[in-house]
Specification:
34% strand
Amino acid sequence: MEQPNIPDWAMGMECAVTVCDADCRIIYMNERSRNTFAEGTDRLIGANLLECHSPHSIDIIRRLLTEGGVNCYTIRKGGVKKLIYQTPWTENGKIAGLVELSMVIPDEMNHYDRDRQA
């Protein structure tokens, strides 16, 4: 399956970027995503997200594809804490699929309340 025209900046990012279309088919994986999910190969391009997720996750995927919004959470896997951020991408004003960003984050992070800073 041909990948969309994603600028080169996505390929070298220090976080995983995975994109699917409205039919839940994976259409793009940057290098970090490929290394995370497919041992450095692009065998998952064209695969359906629904085939490798739990019923709970499938409900979230379907909700995001129909209603929009954001699904954001943290996980710990292999001793590494990650932030997962999932949101639709649009084309001509319609939801065309989902983007997932997965990034390693430290156990303790600074938090800056910009509303309270002068």
